[in-house]
Here is the input.
Amino acid sequence: MSSEQFQAAHSSIYNLGTRLLQYLQEIRQSRLSEGDDTKSLETVENDINRALTALKEQKYQVAVIAAMKAGKSTFLNSIIGADVLASETEACTVCRTDIRPIDNHATSKLLEYRQGTRKPIEIAQGNSEEIRTKFIERTHEIRSKANTDQVIRFELQHPIEAISNLSSLTGFTLVDTPGPNEWESANFSTVALKQTALEALRTCDAILFILDYSSFKDNTNAELLQDLIEQRKEFLAQNTGKIYFILNKVDRKAEKDRSIKDVMADLKQALIGFGIPDPIIYPASAWQGLLAKLIKSKVATKEHKSDFKNFFLARYIEEDEDGDPFVPKLSEIAPKALTDSGIPRIETSVIQAVVQNSGWNFLSDVLAKIDKAAKSIEDTLNTKISGWEMDIKVLKQKVEEYKKRSQNAKIKVENVKKSVDRQKQILVRGFTQGIDIFASRTKIELQNQIDQIAESKIGKSSGTKKSKYPSTRQTQTNNDIDWGEIIADFGGGIIDIFSKSVGKIFRISVKGGESLFKALSQSVPEVFNDSDLSVSENQTNADPYIIRVKTNQDAQNISKTINEFCAPLIQSFWLDTQDKLVRDGTTIRQELALKIQNDIQQISDELSNYLEEALQVELNVNPIQFPSFEFSGIDAKIRQQQEIFRRMKKEERIEKNCCNTKIYYVPVEYEDKQDFYEIDLHQTLQLINLKIDEQVARNREALEGVIEKQIADDFRKAEQQINDYIKKFQNDFDNLLKERETKQAEADQILTALNFQKAKLNEYLQELKSIQQSLDTWKPV
Here is the structure.
């Protein structure tokens, strides 16, 4: 499905929906003037309006992830078609930036969103240069002040050249995410940056990894792949169609270097090794692409033209018929230079992937919603026609029987609700277990780090003698979530995916060579690298979990080092846990929603079958729908709950947060013994564990609340749909009986009007069928 086909399908659905809405409003207006309250059609009209609104507002997010200096900002600028994002040698991305398209004639703006506030703050507006300058200034200010303003994201409203001709993609959003070494270079809570990248992997419609041609195998890029890919192999393998790897800066290839083809072959093998079965890789020169776009659109500055001449012009020198070289005009070179940059090919592929997958699913959901509305109108018309043709006494009997049947249907719905509540509690139990695993495994790892310090002290003080102080080091037990048991409780094995793969919630691992002892040895070398680790003369009998130092400064350095080592470790473990729980929770929610859908659908079908037999009329199936555009996602629910708590904290001064990953500052206590300072590692560990327990309590409440609310919302949507169906026919019957008793003399005219309305509706139904057939030819595999 190309972007042009998507645009055409989008327009067809919107135009048809708009005409159907107008047709329905005319029917309602006519009936209102006759005394019919038209309640049976009010819900149908609301459904059409929701579908049309979704068509106008649907967002497609494309995340761009890269290690620092891979050229991410330049790549984004080349897609945007403007030199608007700062590209410096230092890390520029301090938090997520959403780039949203606006009309070419609208004023570009840079907005800033802060924690605890709903309305953004305008940072800059105007041309690209003005916004870029203000953006750089604000980024530097945030870094220098450790983000005291609690900025959580930026929004750049700017025309995006790549989609300028696609009005159906006005919700297309480029998401600029901070890379791994930007997490390390920022001097404020860097975990929030990693959280942004993980969320992008879970929620975005396409993900672009930008890799540096000259160094994609160095430590930086290996870390990027390891942190974001290696531990999520199964998840990424299931989403390969939306993941792209861009080998940027290929213009830097020298004559003596290996061919780009060979480098890409090596990169492909490396990605396969990381668990990507068939990686999609494109070479690119984002800088060349940007400059070519600026020149082509006649907005290039003198500096831009100079850069193009210095770096790329030599490749486009031509020869005349005499063999003499000459330089074409830059405007003549620009189109070919743009093609050679690889940027247009990437744009086409990514946009096509978005519309082929997310776009197709979205249009299909919207079309299904409109189709359901049209067929609901058809059922109303058929019911009225049949009711006018039936003997009134028989009709009244059918109506009374329908009331009994509908009450029975409601009882069955209530039974489904009880079943859902049981399954919901089982699911929550699984998430509780996952959070508890985070706590226990994190405590084990920190205990091991403390034990390493004690063991090192014992080894230095007693040589090869076995210590009388046994290690408290714990081994990690296999305490993964037993999804198999939880799934079995659902009955019917509705969630097969987890019964086949009971994976680890997260992998407790410390980066190679890192340890708390090593960190202390570097920060306080005179204490931890000295053969005499204590001022005590009798070290043999000393408690190895007590550190004695001579100065208050050494004690403070130890306290700082413990915090700086343990905080990121705890935060990283929690992010991996939350990432796994949210991904698994999303999958399970989909499966449970499908079960709810099927159970309620069965009840609805039984009611439809009775009505068909009773009225001797053909009725449509009332499909119980959970369209994707009405499900914001678990991540969005968590963010929403975070914002509620943050506002409470700001307005009511309540110290409460949820799913937040704040840096832990544990008061590492040390006692002044006059001649030395003493730090008790046991006591320090207890304080750290207390902080972990506090976070566990917050996050358990948040995640469980989100899961419970989401499943409850799913059931309410299904329940609402069958209740609307029941009420629709009840209202139709009530109005029909009223009309039969008061307008019997007008029966022929009424039937003529109903058949005319039905004939017009048939045209819409045929058009809906035609659009659906066209969509089916583009259905993604």
Remarks:
- The chain has a mean pLDDT of 79.
- The radius of gyration is 32 Å.
- The longest helix spans residues 392-462.
- The chain has 22 helices and 14 strands.
